[in-house]
Amino acid sequence: MRSQSAGPLTTGPMSIGEFARLSGLSIKALRLYDVSGLLPAAEVDPITGYRRYAAAQLKRARRIGVLRRIGMPLPVIGEMLVLSDAEAVGRLDRWWAGEEAATAARRSGHLWLRTSLAHGDEPERDYPVRAVQRPQRKVATIRTEVDQQGLVPAIGAAQWSIRAHLDRHGARHTPEHWVIYHGLVTPDTEAAIEVCVPYSGSAEPGRDIALRIEPAQSLACATVLRDDCFYPRITAAYQAVHRHLTAAGLVAAGLPRETYLDHWDRLAGDAPFAHVAQPVEE
């Protein structure tokens, strides 16, 4: 998306008001995008502070406007604007897949609640719990803080940022990734999560990407289907794991996590999608 040629009707420097009219962006938005670096003014009068824009900036401005209208956050727009058009297509598709997954989770939550209100609570689902041994692995991670509403988009954004970083270093990775919960994420409170992508080969840390060794560990896991992977239904899997630990006399040895087996848009609704897992002492 580096190209800024737009075929505008005017070729000379434009005032912020004229540029706002031609680009479809408000003057307030243009000032914000100038300060943030997304769309710096071509000229700023050193005495008056008046901004002037070039006609060649219209294409970039219109793209920013479209991306904002579909709900893309400013940091992601910033990432896209430094990419070539071909690279930006992939970044756009990855972000949109995350948005669709979040929308699907909200839709499932609505259906669950509506059914519960109209017909009574559904029978509690049975989530068998099994022991899984995980080998030591290298992981690239991003840690961030989110609430329940922002959880799915945050997971998607983090894992794709990690994957792009690993690709740049020539490291190999599979669709599997997991999220470690450092606190309780609720609709009303934020907590820290750590998104992890295992990889092989070599890589370097990034600005917000850390590299570490995930030790070998024993996990108690409950498998959740894709269409059941939404709040509050997924809490039944956590309850099943907790009951299993209590009944078996197992001791938790780490933070709870959700391991995702593949990308959301690649699986059918009745396919295994995630493991709700608790590390335990051996």
TrEMBL record:
Gene3D superfamilies with a match to the protein in the record: 1.10.1660.10, Regulatory factor, effector binding domain
Pfam family membership, one: MerR_1
UniProt domain HTH merR-type: residue ranges: 13-83
GO molecular function, one term: DNA-binding transcription factor activity
This protein's record includes keyword Nucleus: no
The entry's keywords: DNA-binding
Keyword Signal: no
Domain of life of the organism encoding this protein: Bacteria
Protein name as catalogued: MerR family transcriptional regulator
Organism: Actinoplanes teichomyceticus
